[in-house]
Design brief:
Elements: E1 4-14, E2 19-29, E3 32-37, E4 44-47, E5 51-55, E6 57-63, H1 78-81, H2 88-94, H3 98-114, E7 117-124, H4 127-138, E8 144-149, H5 157-170, E9 173-176, H6 184-193, E10 198-203, H7 207-217, H8 221-225, E11 232-235, H9 241-249, E12 253-256, H10 258-263, H11 271-277, E13 281-283, E14 286-287, H12 295-310, H13 318-325, H14 327-332, E15 350-354, H15 366-372, E16 379-384, E17 387-388
Parallel strand pairs: 1-4, 1-5, 6-7, 6-14, 7-8, 8-9, 9-10, 10-11, 11-12, 12-13
Antiparallel strand pairs: 1-2, 2-3, 5-15, 15-16, 16-17
Helix pairs in contact: 3-4, 4-5, 12-13, 13-15
Length: 390
């Protein structure tokens, strides 16, 4: 078979189970993985040396729109930083020209690539023009962008439907701020009209907002959102265990963003409870104004927060955390046919980590080291569809 390249490495994290294979080859043909294990006999061999090959990260929840507002709201609570229309974020963005905003989002995407992120799901404000601006920002970059658009709030129902329909024709889905942002019957109508699109919503991020929802409707934000059958609930920082079980039975996916929850003082997502009930979950880095788009730091923070809050080690095993940052995130945003793990037939898109780096040298558990020690400084090369991009 012509055109095969075998990349030889000391270790490869292979398959959806993220199994560690020692002294193996990743065989690539036409930008796809042909096989993993022995070098193909007809392949051109490339010995990468003492390195680890692993899947790139899937950032399952981001807000690229505030890339240019880094640390603008440091020390302030969520409602003052994020909430429209007067939150710092929205006031800052309102002062940008479209060109400036696109340039800033493109910078944020470049940051993600440098940190080994191959795809992200972005909650994109500013209606259809916001979605189009995001696609412009991503044009030509080696990263997949899932644009989840958002309508203006406070519109009459028919205007809201018209705007949402225009957004959904162009975008990958909707990214909703809060269960009170729009009438539920409008969201139910849109869900029926666009069953193949992704519907995602923030839920129970802030304690006070969830309490108000319970006082008004008798249930928390997560359960109330089930009225329009969302695919993904983001945060769930303040969702009780009984409701987690309900979400599992409704086959809802979840995304945690522990560093942003922590810096805003909103709490620690009880991901160990999510796992106990089998709730599918990914990891996101959330707003760029609040947290760097760095999945290495996100994984490490999540692991340590969970252990500290439970006062015991290994509440969530490192492989599970790595899965949330790779294959599980890919499944949530429907990219697992190409990304999230290294398997025959998938894209030959992978990270090359230097095992001689100070962080990884002498490691006795490479999966744990990737979660707890590795950083973007350990990335020696990045390959997308078999082509080195960094």
């Amino acid at each position: 078979m012509p055109g095969i390249t075998a990349y030889l490495a000391s270790a490869i994290i292979a398959g959806d189970q993220l199994e560690l294979i020692s002294n193996a080859a990743l065989n690539i043909n036409a930008g796809r993985i042909l096989s993993i294990g022995e070098a193909h006999p007809a392949a051109d061999r490339v010995d990468l040396g003492n390195v680890l090959l692993m899947p790139g990260f899937i950032n399952a929840h981001t807000h690229l729109g505030d890339t240019g507002a880094k640390e603008l709201g440091a020390g302030l609570p969520l409602e003052q930083v994020i909430n429209p229309p007067h939150g710092l974020k929205h006031r800052y963005i309102a002062g940008l020209s479209p060109e400036e905003h696109i340039q800033q989002m493109r910078h944020g995407l470049r940051e993600m690539i440098t940190n080994g992120i191959f795809a992200c799901a972005d909650f994109r404000e500013q209606g259809l023009s916001g979605v189009q601006a995001l696609y412009q920002a991503a044009d030509g970059l080696p990263i997949r962008v899932i644009a989840l658009g958002r309508m203006a709030e406070g519109l009459p129902p028919q205007e809201l439907l018209n705007e949402a329909q225009a957004i959904l024709e162009a975008a990958d889905g909707l990214g909703i701020r809060d269960v009170t942002s729009y009438p539920l019957n409008v969201l139910e109508t849109l869900r029926e009209e666009f069953p193949q699109k992704l519907f995602a919503i923030h839920a129970a991020e802030n304690t006070q907002a969830d309490i108000q929802c319970r006082e008004s409707f008798g249930v928390g934000q997560a359960i109330r959102a089930l009225a329009f059958s969302p695919d993904i609930l983001v945060h769930l920082t303040n969702t009780p265990e009984a409701e987690i079980e309900i979400l599992f039975h409704r086959n809802i996916g979840a995304v945690c963003c522990p560093r942003t929850n922590a810096i805003l003082g909103d709490g620690i997502p009880a991901v160990n409870i999510w796992q106990r009930y089998g709730l599918r979950f990914g990891i996101g880095t959330d707003n760029l104004m609040l947290s760097s788009p760095d999945m290495f730091r996100e994984m490490d923070a999540l692991s340590r927060m969970l252990n500290a809050s439970a006062k015991m080690p290994a509440v969530l095993e490192p492989r599970k955390i790595l899965a949330a940052a790779t294959i599980e995130g890919a499944r949530l945003i429907k990219l697992d046919h190409d990304l999230g793990s290294l398997l025959p037939g998938k894209e030959a898109s992978f990270l090359v980590l230097d095992l001689n780096s100070p962080n990884l040298k002498y490691s006795h558990d490479l999966i744990s080291s990737v979660v707890h020690r590795a950083s973007s400084a350990d990335i020696r090369q990045i390959f997308i569809k078999g082509v080195q991009v960094q």
